[in-house]
Amino acid sequence: MHGRPRTPDRPAPQVDHACAATTPGAGGQRLRWPLPALLVWALAWTSTVLLVRQGLAPGAALLAGALLAGALALKAGSRWRRLITATGFPVSALLSGWGGTLPAWLWLVPLGLLALAYPLRAWSDAPMFPTGRGALDALPSVVPLPAGASVLDAGCGLGHGLQALHRCWPQAVLHGIEWSRPLARLARWRCRGARITAGDMWSASWSAHDLVYLFQRPESMSRAWAKARGEMRPGSWLISLEFAVPDQAPSAVLDVPGQRRIWVYRVDGALKSRPRRSDMQNTVSDAQRVMPTDRN
């Protein structure tokens, strides 16, 4: 899932407010993700069924439904959400047999299995995108952790982030927390040396950890920083892959070729007023940037 090459002189990414977890609705109300995608899929299926009942060939009706879903997906926010929203209806149509002998409700089966494995509540934090194997290899150059340090992957999914953290600090005590119980069980099987629990990363305390790692959403980062400042010891670390804490100067910004940007924050434990955005931009431009060599 990780991907596109990064150049060291690329401007620091700004929080994309178009990637919000909510979508405007009638009367100014907003719908939490993934409800917008579910509504688009329902509209696509409804239009397809109505067109077939009006005498249109099933293939043409399904094409019209797919075009409708694609058009509505343009307003879904981030690139990944647009992709999920646009492809959900065609995938469900394929699974249903494209209007053949299979019942029309069959497309709900994979959606139900997905909801069991990855509950809707977890989708409001972040979709299940794994951390790349070498995505964090640059961290030890700026984050010195002693042997036995406690490291938490908050929202660990299948354990890809835990494996990347183990590459960085093989002597650390790794912890993971994941809302989905099936995913937590699979992560325990994949990461035998880590202590993984099924639970809510926002309710669980971060106070015992020397470092907390996140690969969340832009909208989650202010909440994560407030939690880190309120619970973690001074001198501990908050690490975010790809997304910055709004209006907070990082301790370091790591640009790794072929990987996502890493934002490094040192928790000082003091409650200070946030800097102005203009000051933040100047500070980030002067933040430490590291171009590590390949450790493989």
Automatic annotation (TrEMBL):
Q: Which InterPro entries match?
A: FAM173A/B (IPR026170), SAM-dependent_MTases_sf (IPR029063)
- Per the record, the domain of life is Bacteria
> What keywords appear on the UniProt entry?
Membrane, Methyltransferase, S-adenosyl-L-methionine, Transferase, Transmembrane, Transmembrane helix
One GO BP annotation is: methylation
Q: Give one GO molecular function term.
A: protein-lysine N-methyltransferase activity
Ranges annotated as spanning the membrane: 33-52, 58-76, 83-99
Positions of region (Disordered) = 274-296
Q: What is this protein called?
A: Methyltransferase family protein
